[in-house]
Structures are given as structure tokens and as C-alpha cells.
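Morning run. Coffee first, then this:
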Amino acid sequence: MGEPVRFDSGAGADMPRQAAQARPDMAAGARPPRVIAIDLLRGLAVMGMIMVAYAGGWDHRFTFLTHADWRGFAIADMIFPAFLFCAGAALPYALGRRAGEGRTALVGHVLRRAAALILLGVFLNLLPGFDFAHVRLPGILQRIGLCYAIVGTGCALALRRGGLSVSALVTASAVLLAGYACLLLAWEAPGCGRACFDSANALPAVVDRAVFGVPHLWPWGRTGDIVTYDPEGLVATLGALVNVLLGVTASVLLMRSHKRATLTALAVAGVLCLLAGLLLDPLIPVVKKLWTPSFALLSGGFTLLALLVLMRLAPPGREAPAWTRPVLAFGTNATLAFVGITLIDTAMQLPLGARSGHDLLAGWLARAIPEPRVASAAYSALLLCVLGAGLWQLYKRRIVIRI
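And here it is:
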């Protein structure tokens, strides 16, 4: 593996020692205190994703481990927005590390990393059969990569000696929200009418079918028995960009100060986003699978408040409490964790005789544990432990696998 890679970052592996040098308002040789809470938030998101997406029995799950069917929201729906928020939160540190390289080099770095994420996501979707005719083209890593490319390029071009402008970031978020809202409200779907938000005729669903083709969409994105949409589709990325920008904005503010005024401002912003999302719902429904502006605001507010709670439990600039370390093992190698759980699940779905490894293990747990929901969650927890054991070894050696 080579020499261990140190991770000093509260924003994952992207917070460098040199970050402070890009900040003229900091003392020479200083650096922003570690925001451990960002790594914790990312780690909890990874762990939550495994518990939600890799069940032993899909018909027997606890309610809090299930997504909203369409309109509305659930705790499980807050997981992916947290990923995107953390991706945004890491950007100021990553750009600060390379601030002396010039804008062209910064943009090149952002686009190369985004391309790697997108290609990796498509590769994972091809497993195990490499069926190119039916491979799902959108996906989680693809959306993260696309958001990283757009927001990262914008931030690289807007970076000044004094850092990123908070007012510019807020303005960009507002423009995206308003623009996406106008698109959704102005869309008139044949047979559905203006401002259609169903799973077959909403603008994002129609565009995804036209751009990618039905064979390349998420096979469970169905209206009845017909595949009609992809939850990580193209147009809905406009809403997801807002969550990334919220992460960038929070990180910029926290790099400048962890004083009570900053934390209070973030708390107020979180509450306002939550309320705005709920108040918008009658006009623009909260639909995660379309990542509507109301969902972007609601999930962004939830993530901001979750970050502040974690900051209270693990204050910046201090040694990580012992209880946080298993979570940090996931948070500091989040992309590797995503790849790892995908590979484990792919292996578990392969046939072992007449049944797959998944079915054999899930069946054994169902016989051993009388409560079906507990048995289903136990399967997810076992996968979590297997993956966590490997990540823990990397964490102890301070090794971070960068994409």
C-alpha cells in the first residue's frame, strides 16, 4: 500500500496542512481547527446508507429504514443529501490546498476527480454481468461527480485571495432553487397538465427517458409495471446542487470562525431552510426522487442542524472522542466504503447452487430471529460490520484512499 497517508481533516482527506496559507486572515503556519463533525456526518451517512439499501428482506423492514414512496419524506431520505453536503464541505479545503496552482489547474483537478467518480459509478453499475445494453447510467456516484464538477468548477473560478464569497454562494443557491422551481411549475405534461409532479410525466422523468433511454434507467423506478424515472436523473441534479452549495457555504463560515455567532447563524439558516421546504410543499411537493426545491431546502436544513449537533458532541480543534472512531473509519474513506459495500453485495447476489449468498444468509437469520424486521436489519448490520472491520484497519494506520 506504500506509506500511510495522514488524514488531518474534519472534511475528510481533503483538508491539507497548507489550507491556512490560502487564508490571508489567519496567522502564518496556522490552519483551521479540525471540524470532526463533518467526518462524523459523512460516516453516519455511509452507515445509514448500508442499513437502508442492503436489507435482508425488503418486505420486512423497520419504517425508519425505508424511503418515502413518492411525496413526503422520511429519515432515510436524509442520507444522500448528507453525502452531497459533505462533498461540498470538503471543497474549500481541497481548493485551498491548491490555491497557488492557478485557476486552470484547479478546474482541471476538479474535472478529473468528477470524471473518476462518474466512471467508477458506471463501472459498479455494470457488475456483475457487464450488460452494456441495460446498464444504469445515472447513479449515486454519478450524481456526486456531476455536482462536484459543476460546483467545484464554479468555486475554482470564483476563488479569490480572501477565499470564497458567502453572499455569492447564497445567491447561487437561490438562483438554482428559483430556476428549478420555475422549470417544474412551467412544465405542461401531455395528459397531466401544468406543474405535473408524478412519476411518469414530471419534467425530470420525461427528460431522463429521452436522454438515457428506458433500458439505462433505475430498474425499480416504476409507474405501475413500467420503468419511467431514475431517482438520480439529470434534471433533478439542479436541486441536488443546492445541497452541495450549502455544504460549501457552511464550510467557508466554519473555516473563518467557530464562535457562537457563526454557529447561531448556521442554526437559524437550518431552521429557515426546514420551514421554507415545508411551506413550499403545497406549491412544489417534497419529492426526493425528483429532488424538488422544497426537498432540497428541507433536507439541507436537516443536514445543517445535524452537523451542529455533531459539532456540539465533537467540538472542532479537539481530539476525536473515543466513541466517534468507528464512525470516523467510515467517514474518512467514504468513497472506498461505497465501493466496498457494492462489491460485497454483488458477491452476495451471486448464485451458490440454487440460491444466492444473500438468500442463504437472510434465510438463516430469519429462522434464527423470530421478528422479521430484526432479522432483516441484522443482515444489514452484518454487512456493516464486515466492511467496517476493513475500514477500521485503514483508519488505525491513517490511510485514506483518494479518488
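The beta strands are 10-13, 188-189, 193-194, 222-223, 226-227, 351-352, 355-356. Good start to the day.
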